[in-house]
């Protein structure tokens, strides 16, 4: 790996990029060496080096809170913010996203990773942040970068077994994420909703109580000068559609429970008919999904006009047809989460090497055989499980020949361009910059790094 002393200096415990062009030239090698470094301390130090270098040249991990606050006041409207989960080829995919964002002057877009994805894609928060910001460095992007913890979810089974342990585990993840410059966190305690209770308030009480307590925790640990954008969720994705009564019970209960001096939620996730990854038929094709756009519109409007939130959030939307995305804008949906559709483009690309795909599929059949449901066909099992082929094969994905990667990425680039257009976030960079002040939060440089870079 090239000596970073040629383009980075550390003075007074702060990183200074002395040669931006050299950093861009070296970043491919630097991020690869960082991600696959076998020495954990050195790996984390190098990942932090990349993050701090990005901040020094104007690439700023930010909270979308103030922008959403302005949307809640009705000052900005007419678009839906895409929140993009990258499970594999993360560096290359992030580069394509930044490239399209720069071409289309997009400022309102989010990179995110869910609690479950962190595990099966083998991307801890610090790594995810560093890889995304390295991609921004490579593409010459400057400005706000919104990195989000998606579905930081309470496991209901683990919560029922040991509530304190499960909440503690989620707090540890939240702290790790915020330390890694995730300034947007979506708390999902909707798994604890108890529909056996007689009233809607009682059904939602575990959900809004946990969400409020975790929000208070975030306010306690967030960096000075940063208000982390926090989202809540009222209906578990893939289950029954959310109702206005549930939304009001949750938000009213949350507002009564959260500490009065703390900033509350910026948005609320609802269920309107989708499921994560889509519904796959026995032959492996996707079933057509009918979204209840009227419910989405009503809930988004209620959240905004009665509670001051930016609006409702739609999950599980990446596999929907193109015609659906413009409707999100029409409903006032503030944010849409997109993941599996990009994974499908990668796996199903005509450029995807058949030998690697076969190897991954055989690995999945062997390692995750116990996860196959009795009524699933082989095609359904592979479709629902192949997301777990990214973590164990991460280095193989990263080292794909450039001609293969460029083919896959060209298909993804077309999709990102379409989504930016359909969600109407083209030319949003100026309003994002107007709503959110650039404020980089410097983090301590590990001693293992200071000893190597002076």
How would you characterize this protein structure?
This protein has 454 residues and is an alpha/beta fold. It has two domains: 1-58 and 440-454, no CATH class; 62-347 and 404-437, Aldolase class I (TIM Barrel), CATH 3.20.20. It is 50% helix and 12% strand. The protein has 19 helices and eleven strands. It has helices at residues 20-35, 40-56, 65-72, 90-104, 115-120, 125-139, 156-161, 163-179, 200-221, 244-257, 293-307, 322-331, 340-348, 354-367, 378-385, 394-398, 402-422, 429-435, 447-450; strands at residues 8-11, 14-17, 59-62, 81-85, 110-114, 143-153, 184-188, 229-233, 267-270, 312-314, 335-338. The protein has an eight-stranded parallel β-barrel, surrounded by six helices. A two-stranded antiparallel sheet has the order 1-2. Strand 4 (81-85), helix 4 and strand 5 form a beta-alpha-beta unit. It is globular, with a radius of gyration of 21 Å. 48% of the residues are buried. The model has no long low-confidence stretch (mean pLDDT 92).
Could you give the order of the helices and strands? EEHHEHEHEHHEHHEHEHEHEHEHHHHHHH
- Figure out the total of helices: 19
Q: How confident is the prediction overall: mean pLDDT?
A: 92
CATH class of the largest domain: Alpha Beta
Separation, N- and C-terminal Cα atoms: 17 Å
Low-confidence stretches: none
Structural class: alpha/beta
Percent of residues in helices comes to 40-55%
> Which homologous superfamily in CATH is the superfamily of the largest domain?
Aldolase class I
Strand order of the biggest β-sheet = 4-5-6-7-8-9-10-11
The second-level CATH architecture of the largest domain is Alpha-Beta Barrel
CATH topology title of the largest domain: TIM Barrel
Q: Measured on Cα atoms, how large is the radius of gyration?
A: 21 Å
**What is the global morphology?**
globular
The number of E-state strands comes to 11
């Amino acid at each position: 790996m090239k000596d970073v002393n040629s383009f980075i200096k550390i003075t007074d415990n702060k990183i200074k990029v002395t040669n931006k062009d050299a950093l861009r030239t070296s970043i491919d090698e630097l991020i690869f060496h960082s991600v696959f470094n076998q020495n954990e301390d050195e790996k984390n130090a190098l990942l932090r080096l990349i993050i701090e270098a990005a901040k020094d040249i104007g690439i700023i991990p930010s909270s979308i809170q103030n922008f959403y606050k302005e949307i809640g006041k009705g000052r900005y409207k007419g678009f839906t913010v895409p929140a993009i989960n990258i499970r594999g080829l993360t560096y290359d995919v992030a580069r394509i996203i930044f490239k399209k964002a720069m071409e289309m002057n997009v400022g309102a877009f989010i990179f995110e990773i869910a609690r479950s994805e962190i595990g099966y894609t083998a991307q801890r928060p610090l790594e995810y942040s560093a890889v995304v910001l390295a991609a921004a460095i490579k593409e010459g992007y400057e400005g706000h970068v919104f990195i989000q913890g998606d579905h930081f979810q309470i496991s209901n089974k683990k919560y029922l077994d040991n509530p304190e342990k499960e909440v503690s585990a989620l707090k540890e993840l939240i702290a790790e994420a915020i330390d890694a410059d995730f300034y947007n966190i979506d708390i999902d305690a909707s798994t604890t909703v108890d529909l056996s209770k007689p009233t809607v308030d009682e059904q939602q009480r575990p959900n809004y109580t946990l969400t409020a307590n975790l929000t208070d925790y975030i306010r306690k640990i967030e960096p000075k000068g940063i208000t982390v954008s926090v989202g809540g969720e009222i209906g578990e994705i893939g289950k029954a559609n959310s109702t206005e009564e549930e939304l009001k019970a949750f938000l009213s209960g949350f507002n009564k429970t959260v500490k009065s001096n703390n900033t509350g939620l910026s948005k609320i996730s609802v269920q309107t008919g989708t499921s994560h990854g889509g519904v796959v038929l026995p032959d492996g094709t996707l079933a057509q999904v009918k979204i209840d756009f009227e419910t989405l519109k009503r809930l988004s409007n209620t959240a905004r006009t009665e509670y001051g939130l930016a609006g409702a959030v739609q999950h599980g939307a990446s596999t929907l047809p193109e015609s659906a995305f413009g409707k999100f804008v029409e409903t006032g949906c503030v944010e849409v989460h997109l993941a599996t559709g990009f994974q499908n483009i990668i796996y199903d690309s005509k450029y995807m090497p058949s030998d690697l795909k076969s190897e991954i599929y055989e690995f999945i059949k062997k390692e995750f055989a116990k996860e196959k449901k009795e009524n699933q066909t082989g095609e359904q099992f592979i479709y629902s499980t192949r997301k777990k082929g990214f973590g164990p094969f991460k280095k193989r994905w990263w080292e794909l020949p450039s001609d293969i990667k460029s083919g896959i990425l060209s298909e993804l680039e077309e999709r990102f361009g379409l989504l930016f257009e359909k969600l109407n976030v083209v030319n949003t960079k100026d309003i994002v910059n107007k709503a959110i002040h650039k404020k980089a939060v410097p983090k301590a440089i590990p001693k293992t790094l200071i000893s190597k870079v002076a």
